[in-house]
Amino acid sequence: MNPWLALSPGDDPAERIRLIGRAHERFLAGEMRPDRMRQVVADSWARSAAFIGADSTAPIDLADDDLEAYRSAHPLARVMPLFRDLLGGLAEDGDHMMAVCDAHGRLLWVEGHPATLRSAAAMNFVPGARWDEAHAGTNAPGTALAVDHALQIFATEHFSHPVQQWTCAAAPVHDPGSGRLLGAIDVTGGDHLANPHSLALIRATALAAEAYLRDFVKVPRSPQVAALGRDEALLAAGSGRLRIKRRHSELLVLLTVHPEGRTGEQLAVDLYGDDVNPVTVRAELSRLRRILGPELLDSRPYRLRADLTTDFGVVARLLDAGRTAEAVDAYPGPLLPASDAPGIVRLRRLLDDRLRAAILEAGDRRLLQTWLNSSWGSDDLDLWEAYVALAPADPVAARRVAALTREYACNVAAT
Question: Model-level pTM greater than 0.85?
């Protein structure tokens, strides 16, 4: 079975609603992995329960002039005519809505028949509301952002009770140049959306948007490396883009931060620590040189022959200039997060620590929200406490601080 589809062929929708509803009740009662649940939904319930209760309603994050200014400047504003052309018929039929959110789950546009929009407004499915999992629980646009994949969420699969009368399908949309997540496109309606055609349509719409946005991507003058929030770096040179395998990604990142060059032994220490294997490193460097070409990678010492622009370097320079908000926007996630190479781990921690410190110093509620609502920042007790100091009436934040404090106290006691 396709794990991103809500129903298998032959499933009775009414029976699935009852079965999932009972599984939801058992989950809320403490059964962490109910039977007969899609894994993507079970995982999402676990993430959601760490932040909200099952009767929570999505909060409004942007309104009025702030909302209008934000969404008019957002990259997805360019593709709204395309979205309306491809999905407008659904949005006007009285049974469906089309919604577009940013990478943080903020709904920017929600369109459909007035009666349908009024029904959706009762659960705050409106422009400016925050529909990431941390604020709205399991739902198609929020969960599509969390797992970076198109999917359907069917009726009682939603974590929040007020949303369980709806079914939705959503797909993430990426910047075609950098691969950065821009947001998601969603169709929400009745149970009949739980079919393969709706998922295929929403995925095709997201791909069409990315293809359209490609026309606006500027060809980089110098090669560019994207390594934040991805396990394999992306190299853009001229009009071409190349995904680099994990070990070669580590080498490429290390070389970008050492323009003076590195010996094979130095790179071996960066990659393996005490378990130095310079022969293996030289073999990997030879393969990397064949990939990049001699015009980019030199040897004796190993160094890059061109100045490469890196996404992690951009974030660092923005922090140097005190432009914290822009640095946060330019940060899609940790540097090569799956890498355990000592040299990469040091670079990753250095950048993350600098960014955290800048967010704390800024004392800006929205910057704190952005960090805490990410997968890498969701357990950051220091920043949660800073957020609660700015928003003491936020029950989600207060519960999260209490839960993390207990968890850390238990870990300390166990050691």
Answer: no
